Amino acid sequence: MGELREQMQQTLSLHGMAPRTQAAYLTAVQDIAKYYHQRPDTLSEAQLHAYLRFLLDERHLSASSVRVAIMGIRFFYTQTLRRPWPNIPLPKRTKTLPEVLSREEVARLLASTTTVRQHALLMTTYGGGLRVSEVVRLRVSDIDAGRGMLRVEQGKGRKDRYILLGPRLVAELRRYWQWYRPGAPWLFPKQSQPAPMPIVTAQRMYSDGQGARGDYQSGGHARLTSRGYDAFIGRGHGPRDPATLVGSRECHDDYALCARGPESSARARITIGELAGR
To answer: Is the pTM of this model over 0.70?
Structure first.
């Protein structure tokens, strides 16, 4: 792609796209160019439609993956090339409820930790319902222990929000600070470097905890994050309360909180203190 790639990269940056979104959109255009062995700015509408069918019928990609590919190619045409976009519909997303860790699984996970750092990171993920990309980029200055609040800066959708911190989690973070004294600004920095912990390291902490208890399951941090939101609802908050408290416009779509009825909320009545009590 050469010159076209550089143009698209600049346009993505000007639009303030997140690094992962930029990479996904660039890959989408690169892939379709490789598929047809021609420059992406010379493709016809028929070729675009045929490529969509190829992704769905032959590669058997999920609707979400195909949507990302189409949005990347559409961005290239409408924003980089400034051309009209043909009527190519986006596949409908398949909405499913996530697999959620049980109370016993979360307790075993936290009990299996071998370091104060691992315990603090997993407790923060669970207690705040944070994505792995959010927890590794927390800063020491994001903690407001006096008000029991945690600031999440530029989370999903590049939006800031606040998370409620319980006294048990505040105490655990203090214990972590006393042990490690992480260098500013990162709360969970990369070892020996002034940079945030790599996502893969945090993911490994979670999988190591599962492996230590012999109950490894797929889903990774997302299952722990989702359980954190369930527990929040279970503590007496309605499905829309989390959005009001943390500054989000709507219910947490990723984990379909709005779809969970009072039965699942009742089952989730649990606090981080109960699980992590040491």
So the answer is: no
